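Now for today's protein.

===
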Amino acid sequence: MDIIKLLLIFACITIVMKFNKPLSVSIAAGIGAAIVLYGINPLDTIKLVVNGTFSKGTFDLIMAFYSITFLQRMLEKRGHIVLAERSLNNLFNNRRINTMIAPFIIGLLPSAGAVLIAAPIVDNAVENYLTKEEKTFVTSYYRHISESFLPTYSSILLALSLSGVDMTSFVWIMLPMVVVLFLLGYFFYIRKIPKDTGVTVSSKKIHEIKNIVISLWSIALSIIIILAFKITVHLAVIPVIVLYFILNKFTFDEIKPMFRSAFEVKLILSTVIIMIFKEVLDFTGIIQRLPGYLSLLPIPSVVIFAMVAFLGALVAGSQGSIALAVPLAYATIPDGGVALMVLLMCMIYIAMQVSPMHICLAIITEHYGTPFIELVKKTMPIVISFVIISSIYSYFMFLIM
């Protein structure tokens, strides 16, 4: 019955999405379905709503979005996003490189709000050569590739801690899969974009590199602070905002409107709704019972845990899936080593690119006005391709290591 109920909840979300409703409305419908199907009483429902709305995790997410959006407004005001895009053009004279590399670099900043900084650069590089839905996909997809392997992200650190796999080995063995991710995006979408930007390639390479540093130092410094001091995103970004304010000689009249414009109501509402949905799913216990149901299937253990990782990411997010799948997988397959880790993390990563629990997808679909279901459609060919390729790769790694 749990599986049937879970399918009904996701069917409810999908049906509402079909009516081109925002992701927040679709997830709210899923919350309502879960409450009815699991008979959650009104008192518990109120507690779950309060916990999801006012938890520290929700507060940290909202503050991260707000601070990153605020920094984005400042970058736009001083023309630094445009300068970075122009300098990339002058260095490479290649729209395709701009479209792939800029979001990837900005994605090194471990914050969902970073996707909003990447969006205008992608827009300028792509112009009208891709549809709105394809722009939505490309911006989100390339911004997230760093999350698949870099230990700057808490999900990677958590998985490494639970598995005992060496960090350096994991990063090196994941690199071919990173290349695969770049190539899949290129094959399905990027190659539609003409290479030439129409800009004469600059002979002053050092000058262009300097411009890129001037444009993006604030993002780089935010990353360094987060890594060095292990603090939440907004606590790292706020001092960078202050420094950026001083160095770029902002006036208070310039910055005053940004306090309001950085507060995006739709984004915050989507965040709160998703966090409430997570609380509701945790309360039902379905996430904890899911491995037991899958273990009844007549298939190898490694395939079962790959499915647990993938489905867990869909319904509980990356950290929930890691906490569920990784300890169980290594207890069952103790000699899995780095090959098993690569398989599990590939499944979790690619599932997150179509998961309604992924905050970034709510942000980018709201930004472009793209229905979530359309983003999923654009992503599915890459999801299927990557699942097959990473499974084969992990199997060969297991054989040779």
Remarks:
- The chain has two domains: 40-129+203-284, 150-192+288-401.
- Residues 345 and 361 are 19 Å apart (CA to CA).
- The chain has a mean pLDDT of 84.
